[in-house]
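<backbone_tokenisation>
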Amino acid sequence: MFAAMDNSTTAGLLREMDKRTAARLLDYMEADPAAGIIAEMDADIAAGILIEMDSTEVAGILGEMEAAEAAALLTEMDEGIAVGIVNDMEPSLATNILAVMQESAAAGIFVAMEESTAAGFLDDMEAYNAAAISAGIAESIAAGLKNNLEISNAAAILLELVEIDESMVTGLLVNMDPPTATAVFAEFDASTALGLLGAMGAHSAAELLAEMDLITAAGLLGAMDENSSAGLLQRVNRARVIRATWHRSSPTSSHERKRKRRGANDQLSDAESADAEAVSGARDGVRGVGGRWWR
């Protein structure tokens, strides 16, 4: 019967039925004609019918629609249902749909996904789209996603995000695993790296620099003014020595704690001298050179 009708007429009939009945009728159709009928309905009505169907069937229908139309339908659904549908879609099709969704709606779906799955979709998106979605996700969750991305992709997304919300980028770097944050940071050009360090609190900047090798950290510090670099250098050395001395084992006695503290102070003094020399050399040798000059 429906085969003889045009899509608009069929859509009108389905709108008049209860949602479960309409869903059962769509179940009997191939994905392509069903998509044509769904496209004739208002998004909220169509979504109400689709959520009565199996997620794999809905995934097939959305895969036959224009990305913007499919995105509008997912936006009308509960995030949990939308995630099930997205997971059943061909990844490239799902990526295209998520990329054109309203950022806040897409962010809600990403938060409801498994972290590794969400990271996979961000990896496959254009950096600008991924950054726009990331801007709508809580920093702690977004940082977890970035930990699962390819380093170069994470850096590209954060570079785009700098233009949207620089403070969020600094927050993400602070919340990421330190080795990952350091690797991502090394992908930035000198101007961006120095700008982000300057936007961070001194403690967070020092923690990040402490994760870097001496040459990298010295190059960054050497490009700063002497007052800023001197203050950071003390914090970097303190963080580096504390990690090396105290994290090996927890001192159990008062005598042991004093011994470790004395050892830490001695190491700190030695580290400050060595790092001060490295920073001085970096300032003399590399100041003003562009690009990833500290690597």
Remarks:
- Confidence is low (pLDDT under 50) at residues 244-251, 285-295.
